Amino acid sequence: MVSTIQNTDVKQKDADRAVVVAVTSRAVFESAADDGGDVYGVGVAFPLLQALHKVNERLLEESSAESLLFDVILITTDDQQQQQSSRITSSTRHYGLEVSRFCFSSQEDFTESLLKNNVQLFLTIDRDEVLRASQNGVLSALLDQQLASCPSEQLRVMISGDAVIKPDTDPMPPGQKGAQSFSTQLGQMRQKFGIFNSPLSIVLVTLHGGRESCGDALRTLRSRGVSVDEAHCLAGAPRGPILSVLRPHFLLSDGVSYLQE
Amino acid sequence: MVKMSLDPVQVMSGQVKELKVAPSSNGESRGSWEAKEEFDQDHLGLTTKPKPPKPENAVTVAVSSRVLFRTEREQKVFEQKGVEEYLRYQIEHETEPFAPGPAFPFVKALEAVNTRLRELYPQSEELFDIVLVTYNHAHVGIRLINTINHHNLFIERFCMTGGSSPIGYLKAWHTNLYLSADADKVREALAEGIAAATMFMPEKLTEVSDTQLRVAFDGDAVLFSDESERIFKAHGLDKFFEHERDNEDTLLDHGPLKGFLEALGKLQKKFYAKGQRLDCPIRTYLVTARSAASSGIRALKTLRAWGLEIDEALFLAGAPKGPMLEKIRPHIYFDDQMFHVEGAAEMGTIAAHVPYGIAQKYTKQKTSAGK
After folding, report:
1. Residue of B nearest to A165 (CA)
2. Which of A82, B25, B200, B276 has the greatest count of CB atoms below 10 A from its CB?
3. What are phi and psi of B164, to 5 degrees?
4. Chain A contact for B3, CB < 8 A?
């Protein structure tokens, strides 16, 4: 059973223009140390939500009528948390999170919820959920618990260069299309800010390939209107140390994306 | 924000695309052997590119774009017209490769050593690894890649931080040596225990060997600590001699470049092991103001105790270093005193300043430092 509740505290976004990002409530709220109170503790994805909010704020500062904004919805698939749906909504209000909708569904049909809500990016701490969402054509990424420990205020999105260079194959795998359109929208958002002091940073990382891959990725992204801020070419070097300096919030690849393998 | 108006067709045509077989293959399998052969022919050279080593196994040299290449004109645009104009200029001139900078001959020489090492030890990862570390924006990336291609450099790794400090990345890359035009960044790196030096473009560039890497070091405050220099600066030459004599058998403490000399020594031994001592493509030099008969002894004893061999030790006993360096023609010469660095540069030697120790308080610069 899938149900959606609107958050009346928050102004609803323009359905045609907004970039819908779904995050699981299990990622946003910490339910482990449960003292049974009204409000959950903050979880891994909490700083991410704040960063998304900051981008929206700055976009509206640039233009008060801006409609290309992040539209964040909280999706609850966890049975335990579902039973406490009011706690989720009250926690959201307590922290003043800019969540426009709450979706409740079971583990089995949460992908239906994603598709119904036109979700362009799904973020979760559960690998299985990432796989399943991808298989259903929804761009999704795994939130890394280690990296979340030193969050940045700036929204840092990592794009995998090894995936970008794939030539447009016909038919395009569903994940690829989602990644392309999301990165294009990200590029549009990025263009509204100057070089420095941007609330959003796009980081290109080529994990396996060398400078050719990186160059191709930069060119391809540029042709889509995506200006990259940082570019790191690893050419097979271990990614751990560099990722901990980069501190991306999530990684965009094509379909299944893992920050740490 | 810079608006791009590039025709995608223009951009995408003529690109060499690497053959990628991603783990989540989209089922586009090249079943027939002929098809694969054909594809490979389009990518001649890519299949013969050696795999870069793991950073922790290699001697990693991080160079900034401003010392690897000459970017004075672009720097001027940045200073006079701001970052947006600077990036626009870079993109406009994207297909124009930069000219070689002061670190260029050094990097070429590192690659020559790698070629020899690979011949002798094809499976080993004990090689030089070069990482381009720049706080440039990724907008400049394509021009840098075009330049690397143009000069046939073997650089597969880079780090364009888009304005944030590169220091954290230096550590993540297990950097053994960092070369930059920015004295502040170099000081930060030294403070983090990473060997680093600021490089300057000499007015005339003397020719250096393209078969043998030559690295020259000053002694005090470069290979060794600055303790003796402190004595000299505080109490004069006589006290310095006295102190060195009294402490002849006490090892000097290590300086910021000791580790790099050690790394070079390890690679040298690999050539010796294959009977190539006379033909070794790495040669190291100590060029010090100490005297052979007196203060130099302590330096030699220290090096010996550290198990470090230096190929040539030149004790100048205070004589100017310029002429000696002109004879040696090192690919890089490390000194803690700007006075010596500038003197060397005037004679065409590629000199790098190590901003470490007491000498920094007594800078007698002829020109303003670190651009």
Report:
1. B17
2. B200
3. -85, 160
4. yes
By the CB < 8 Å criterion, does A131 face chain B? no
Question: Cα–Cα distances in Å, from A170 out to A41, A176, B28, B155?
Answer: 46, 11, 10, 33
Return the pLDDT at B48. Answer: 61
CA B107, B111, B116 angle in degrees (round to 5)?
A: 145
Residues 91-110 in A contacting B (C-alpha not used; CB under 8 Å): none
* Phi–psi pair at A70, nearest 5 degrees: -80, 135
CA distance A215 to chain B (A): 6
Q: Which residues of B touch A156 (CB under 8 A)?
A: none
Collapse the DSSP code of A141 into the 3-class scheme (helix H, G, I; strand E, B; otherwise coil) and give the result.
Answer: strand
Catalytic residue among B40, B42, B218, B253: B218
Residue A259: alpha-carbon gap to chain centroid: 12
Token digits for B272? 């010796």
Q: Positive or negative CA dihedral for B155, B160, B165, B170?
A: negative
C-alpha B269/C-alpha B260 separation (Å) is 14
Instruction: Write the residue in B22, B142, B172 that is nearest to A242 by C-beta.
Output: B172
Q: What is the pTM of this model?
A: 0.86
Distance CA A226, CA A218 (A): 9
Residue B238 falls in the annotated catalytic set: no
H or E element, residue B288: strand B282-288
The torsion angle over the Cα atoms of residues B93, B95, B98 and B100, rounded to 10 degrees, is: -170
What DSSP character marks residue B127?
S
Give the one of A195, A227, A231 whose C-beta lies nearest to B4's C-beta: A227
> Smallest Cβ distance to A216: which of B8, B17, B28?
B17
Q: Is B166 on the interface with A (CB under 8 A)?
A: no
A150 touching B (Cβ < 8 Å): no
Q: Cα-flanking dihedrals φ and ψ of residue A245, to 5°?
A: -85, -40
Distance CA(B364)–CA(B334), nearest Å, equals 17
User: CB–CB of B64/B181 below 8 Å?
Assistant: yes
Instruction: Give A256's DSSP letter.
Output: S
> Which token pair is A4?
């959606």
Tell me the two tokens of residue B330. Answer: 């090192």
Separation in Å, CA of A237 to nearest CA in chain B? 6
Q: What is the pLDDT of residues B134-150, one digit of tens each?
A: 989 998 999 999 999 99
> What span, in angstroms and rounded, lies between the C-alpha atoms of B323 and B217?
15
Is residue B347 pLDDT above 70, yes or no? yes
DSSP H helical ranges for A63-155: 79-82, 85-95, 110-116, 127-135
What is the rounded average pLDDT of the residues B338-350? 92
pLDDT digits (tens, 9 = 90+) for B212-251: 999 999 999 999 999 988 888 899 988 898 999 899 889 9
Token representation of residue A254: 């094509």
Q: Nearest CA of chain A to the CA of B21: how many Å?
A: 10
- Amino acid at position A205, single letter: V
